[in-house]
Amino acid sequence: MSESRTREILEGWRVIASAAELPKEPPRPRRANSFGVAGMAFVAIVVVALALRNQSTIPAGNSSSSSPSGSTASVAQTVAPTSRNPTQLASTSPSYPPLPAAGGTCSAGQFVLGTATSGPAYGPIGTTVMYVTQTLRNRGASCQLVLPKTVGVVSATGRFVAVDVAETGTLTSHVGAGQSLSLILSARWPSGGTLASGATPPCHDPVDDVNRVVIPLSTGTIQLDLNPSWHEVCPSPASVSLALTN
Amino acid sequence: MRTDFDGGRPSTVRFGPAGVYMSMQAEVAVGEPRDAAYQRAYERYSPELFRFALAWTNEWSSAEDLTQEAYLRLWRNRASIDWSRPVLAWLVVTVRHLANNRYRAIRRRLAPTRSEIHSDEAARDRWIDVRQALEKLTPTERTALILTSVEGWSYKEVADALNTTDGALRAAVSRARDKLEAA
């Protein structure tokens, strides 16, 4: 038996697989390079102090903002003292235009931010993809978490833009009391050079240097500061994606 | 297999079939930060791990996601990992478990508009042909055939990675070849 077809298929596989372009850096959480034990302890004290202050001044689901719905209550969080969270809760709660509330029954105030990781992901030639995985712990009653179809992105200049989320299907999750799950955000943008086949077409009116994402839940919002910031977010076609995982 | 001592740090070097170099060198030297070992493990094994994931899933996006998630888990477990053992074996098992628990179905939603393969149109057409042919095989048959015939793994290494026996693996390779020729 000549097995010519088998050889042809395997050779094709070999050529294609060996040409895969991989990110140069592995995924890993961001953390300070030279923090030291004293520095970590200082951060832990500051974070706990902020958390206690925010808990007393910003009740979950309510806000001093005049927004009629989708109120922009920031979520007071405690961060694991042994790791620096690359997506930190904004130390203040600026008022942003209201976003359409997501479905479900989970409110932003019942979640605590845990460890986050960020890194590059694979993308077509000419495209950069960055992702963030943010752990959420439900400190309230069990609820149904539904991802929103619209989020807000904020640029380094303070420009706020509501952008549609790329179609992710119906992503909901029942979150029990005390249960943790992960929220996965990602964004893609052109990385320069000629427009290769399959790469993202140019964006009309992109939002540059996005350093914060505002994610509405059924009540309240989760605001995540991004480090590193996202080079560009496109309102259309949608370039931000969301997903949930346990 | 021979064992060498390089500057006081034990290392084990093994050469597989077709001259494939498979280093079982201890990933972490005494006193070396584990994040440096993690970086090196990525540089050394990520292409190979991706190809394993691609052979197992026969889906480009899934292979990318699984490779990334496996390294994330390696990072999270770096303090408890036994770096004196081959990290690639740990990564391969992790990829297989992740693929089996359908995690990739969730991860794939991250960028649904992403292209299936990052290359030109001719390569994509060829990949479609290859993928369709390999789709007729089970994951075990496909991975067994590719790893032994293309990647140069030994039957024992593949059997260990797939948690099967040498005999069962050889039978899988034979079935895979028959199926591809019959198509």
Description:
The complex is a heterodimer of chains A (246) and B (183). Chain A is α+β, with helices and mostly antiparallel strands. In chain A, 15% of the residues lie in helices and 33% in strands. Chain A contains two helices and ten strands. In chain A, strands 1-2-7-10 form a four-stranded antiparallel sheet, with no helix packed on it. In chain A, a hairpin with a 5-residue loop joins strand 1 and strand 2. Chain A is globular, with a radius of gyration of 20 Å. The relative contact order of chain A is 0.18. Mean pLDDT of chain A is 72; it is low at 31-35, 56-92 and 193-198. Chain B is mainly α and 183 residues long. A three-stranded antiparallel sheet of chain B has the order 1-2-3, with no helix packed on it. Chain B has helices spanning 34-57, 60-76, 87-100, 103-107, 121-134, 139-149, 155-161, 166-182; strands at residues 2-6, 9-15, 21-23. The longest helix of chain B has 24 residues, at 34-57. Chain B contains eight helices and three strands; from the N terminus they run βββαααααααα. The chains are: A alpha+beta (246), B mainly alpha (183).
Provide key terms for this protein:
heterodimer, A: 246 residues, alpha+beta, four-stranded antiparallel beta sheet, 33% strand, B: 183 residues, mainly alpha, three-stranded antiparallel beta sheet, globular
Q: Strand percentage of chain A, roughly?
A: 25-35%
User: What multimeric state do the chains show?
Assistant: heterodimer
Task: List segments of chain B where confidence is low: pLDDT < 50 over at least 5 consecutive residues.
Answer: 1-26, 109-115
Q: What is the distance, rounded to the nearest whole angstrom, between the alpha carbons of the first and last residues of chain A?
A: 49 Å
The number of distinct helices of chain A, counting runs of at least 4 residues, comes to 2
**Shape verdict of chain B:** globular
Share of helix of chain B, binned: 55-70%
Helix-strand topology string of chain A: HHEEEEEEEEEE
Low-pLDDT residue intervals, each spanning 5 or more residues of chain A: 31-35, 56-92, 193-198
- Number of E-state strands of chain A: 10
Distance between the termini of chain B: 40 Å
Structural class of chain A: alpha+beta
Nearest-angstrom radius of gyration of chain B?
18 Å
Structural class category of chain B: mainly alpha
- Whole-number average pLDDT of chain B? 77
Rg on CA atoms of chain A, Å: 20 Å
